Amino acid sequence: MNHESRRNFLKTTSLISGIGFSSFAQNPTVIFPIESQNGKLIITSHEKGQVIKPLDVVTITTTEAGYFFIRDGRFRMYRKGEGKVSSITFRAGGALGNHFCELRNNNGDRIDSIYFSVNCQTEIIDSAGIYKELLQTLYWSMVGEFGEMSAYRLNGRIYKVFVGWLRDHTHTLKAMKYFNPNLKDGFDLYANNQREDGMIWDNIAPRTKEPNWWDSVLTKDNFIKKVENGTYELKRQPIEADVEYLFVQCLYESWKATGDNAWMRENLDSAIKAVKYLTTDTFRWSQKYQLVKRAFTIDTWNFKHEYDTKATNGASMLINEKTDFGIMFGDNTGLISAYRMLAEMLLVSGRKEEGNYFKQEAKNIQDRLDKLAWNGQHYTHFIPEDPQFFQKRNIGKTKPNEQLSLSNAYALNRGATHLQALGILNEYQKVRSEMPKNSVAEWYNIYPPFEHGFQKDAKKWEFINGGVSTIVAGELAHGAFQHGYETYGVDILNRTLNLARKHDDYLHATYKGEITESKTGNFTPISLAKSANADFAGKGSQGVPGWNGDGEENDASNIPLGQHSFLGIPFQITDPLDNAEKGCIVLSDDIEKDYQISTALLISKKAATICLLHAHSKGDMIGMLTIRYSDGSTFTDYIHGDKIGNWWFPQDKANFKVAWFGKNKKSPFVGLGITQIINPNPDKTILSIELFGMKNSTSRWMIAGITLGDSVIELKGKDTSKDDLSFGIPDRWGAAAVTYALLEGLAGVKDATTMFERVKLSPRWESTGEKEVSVTVKYEASGGYITYQYKHTDNKIVIIYTGTGTLADIEILLPQHKKTISLRVNGNQKSFLINKIEKSEYLTFSVDSLGVNRIEIEF
Q: Which of 27-41, 666-680, 687-701 has the lowest mean pLDDT?
């Protein structure tokens, strides 16, 4: 096409619907109508206005034969007709956007032209449906907990982020970049508010203008900043040493997906300033080891051992001049990875000297870290600067040199050598063979867990202290695919899907490392007869209010009376007929209904727990339970939040398990739950238990039974399907790790430059037994993508692919015990190499070709 023709084309497209060619490239979801300029060309394979997907077979016919030319969204010709014909059938390919078909005559003059929209989204379609289901489940798990994005307004700009914590945002970004176009805001939010010395804030949160607890502990060392007239606060968890390298990773991941070189170059100095802070600040950099340091935490988490917490007045995230520091290897593998990212960005930006500096420094830090922390099989969790460190702290029988912690899984994907990767992968498989029998998987945040020292924030086998995490699962699977352990990677992905299926097709981030059997304990039911003030029936009587004050159609009159066991705990339910129509305690400030606001029960016994069979109604409930001991001291616990539920349609909570349910004429599902109150002084005699309702409120606190226990038990509800769940980590973080293992590992799509201009394609479907798969991986921010179709028959593998760029470095996992006879690319013989990784063989070669390409491998 000559310049005049191209100018006419651009002019034509800019007039239709007011949308120009360039605007479509920025927003490839715009749908253009399918119609030709002169009415001679017709797209017969698709409906008018239908968006065509890459690799769709498209047929265009004409009423006047001519020469066909097909161009992609960047106006590059990727297909032309074979001579003068009246139709053309081809697969759509090349860059997304407004594709253009032109028909010319023998003289080269245009007869007609037509355009059509080509677009796609990230998806997997496999014949068994397993990995399609997994990808859909993972996406829901990333957005189902808090929604897809949060928004914050600072200095007149609205920032949209996946999570208000930079750490969580960045780890989520590694997968959400394939689904969401809003990527740069997350970096810009923290870059535009970077502290003068280079420090990066950890998180942003709404606040009131009045002073709060965070002000009292973070102001002294400038770890908190009020913004937007005191309606938001930027905070840094002082103990954390990972924020700056994650800041660099956030820039890098966003740049790769957007392809915005100018934006990346503008922010490089902020990224360099951040890592300079990390490697020079006295709280961050170890002069002894010349590595990043931190206080004694479990891997990358933000709370200290109880010994160290005492030195900061109980604030577990604080550090000061008295803090004992050490090396947590994960901070350093993160920094090494960030240095390599910086080097790549600097070299692309023409800052060669700086790029080479960071590349060399990454190697230097890696050498120092390996010498200090690599034990031959995995990285040692924490190496203190003080040789007497562990003698001062009670960690029980835990052997810290033998613990396998979360950041080993990260190390697999931060540049670990092949031998190191094999060591780490083998260690996790070893854990699988020796872990507790009822554990869901070997993906431990740390194994074995600490027996002592971290119980306040994470007791043994929970959360970061021996909990099982899908973060580890994803990083482990991703690393397994890269290092010849493909079947292990597939096995991990399949088990995450099974876990999600167990939990209503939703993948949680953290599971218990061991599911302990509930202690039965010994119980003493307490009679409420002397303290009861209300009837289970709704009608009530003179001086005795009904259950809820709503009349006889809305009551709990069908509750079983006498001594009954609920969730294994016995309660004595008072029969109103034997007690002047008083069967239960209902506390409320609604004096018009004859309720009372408080009551007391004489006990004169010792107990470790107090179990309440109760619920609330008519508003949010905040009650109070006070234990009065025989020595005159007291303990008060507040009854609200997860310690109580509404009696209509009650739901299990952390410390409220539905124990009895029934129905009445107003509701098909009413019930009561059990809450376990832990007595902090079990050796003291309890003189009385005092109960107080909520003042100035018509809410009701309804108590049907109280039982004392001699030990703390794990309270389980009737629904045991969630007994394996732990807490503490956003689900999207774990789901994102598994997503990138699926897309980059198993599906094998990796960006070698930006926007998939050059792609590394390594399909590993052979390890699944799946014979026919279609894969699309797309950056929503830029429209960069790759689509391929994979089909494996007995003696042949055929892959058809297309994408934004022209360059592809291809590695195809081959079936075992078959010899490759030939490789053809677009019908031509192609030379290749066989790359062996452990027992796996990959056929490797490169292709430089625009549009749709066909690979045929014969065995």
A: 27-41
Give the closest residue to 554 by CA, choosing from 682, 662, 698: 662
The contacts of residue 729 (CB under 8 Å, 6+ apart) are: 463, 464, 469, 471, 509, 510
- What global pTM score does this model have? 0.83
Rg (CA), the chain: 32
For 793, phi then psi, to 5°, come to -105, -175
Residue 381 to residue 333: CA distance in whole angstroms: 12
Give the span between the Cα atoms of 149 and 513, in whole angstroms.
Answer: 30
Describe the chain by its helix, strand, coil percentages, rounded to 5: 25, 30, 45
Query: 787: which strand partners?
Result: 776, 802
Beta strands in 498-543 (DSSP E): 510-511, 523-526
CA dist 144 → 136, 147, 730 (Å): 12, 6, 11
Task: From residue 695, give the alpha-carbon distance in Å to each of 615, 620, 643, 690.
Answer: 17, 12, 19, 15
Helix axes 261-278, 184-191, angle to 10 degrees: 50
Classify the phi-psi angles of 229: left when phi > 0, otherwise alpha if psi is within -120 to 50, otherwise beta: left
**Two tokens, residue 460:** 């043994």
What is the rounded CA–CA span in Å between residue 57 and residue 528? 77
Write the CA distances from 376 to 63, 371, 379, 420, 582, integer angstroms: 73, 10, 8, 8, 71
Contact assessment for residue 190 and residue 270, using Cβ atoms and an 8 Å cutoff: no
> What CA–CA distances, in Å, run from 189 to 194, 201, 680?
9, 10, 44
Both structure tokens of 741: 């293992």
Q: Which two tokens stand for residue 518?
A: 């509930």
Cα distance between residue 698 and residue 850, in whole Å = 72
Q: What is the pLDDT averaged over residues 21-27?
A: 39
φ, ψ dihedrals at 588, nearest 5°: -165, 155
Q: Which residue has 């058809």 as its token pair? A: 800
CA 386-390-394 angle, 5° bins: 145
Sheet strands (E) in 582-738: 585-587, 598-605, 609-617, 623-629, 634-639, 657-662, 670-678, 686-692, 700-709
The rounded distance, in Å, linking the Cα atoms of 459 and 461 is 6
The rounded distance, in Å, linking the Cα atoms of 163 and 179 is 15
Task: Report yes or no: 739 and 142 within 8 Å, Cβ to Cβ.
Answer: yes
Q: How would you label 303-318 residue by residue, b for 16+ Cβ within 10 Å and e otherwise? A: bbbbbbbebbeebbbb
* Dist CA 605 CA 679 (whole Å): 12
The pLDDT of 35-47, averaged and rounded, is 91
Residue 560's identity, in one-letter code, is P
Identify which of 43-47, 142-146, 516-520, 731-735 has the greatest average pLDDT: 731-735
Q: What angle in degrees, to the nearest 10, is found between the helix axes of 470-482 and 418-434?
A: 130
pLDDT interval class at 714 (50, 70, 90): confident
pLDDT, residue 34, reads 58
Q: What Cα–Cα distance (Å) separates residue 538 from each residue in 33, 551, 555, 574, 716? A: 66, 5, 5, 16, 30
Instruction: Give the three-state DSSP class for 333.
Output: helix
How far apart are the C-alpha atoms of 848 and 696, rounded to whole Å?
A: 76
Q: Hey, CA dihedral for 741, 746, 749, 750, is it positive or negative?
A: positive
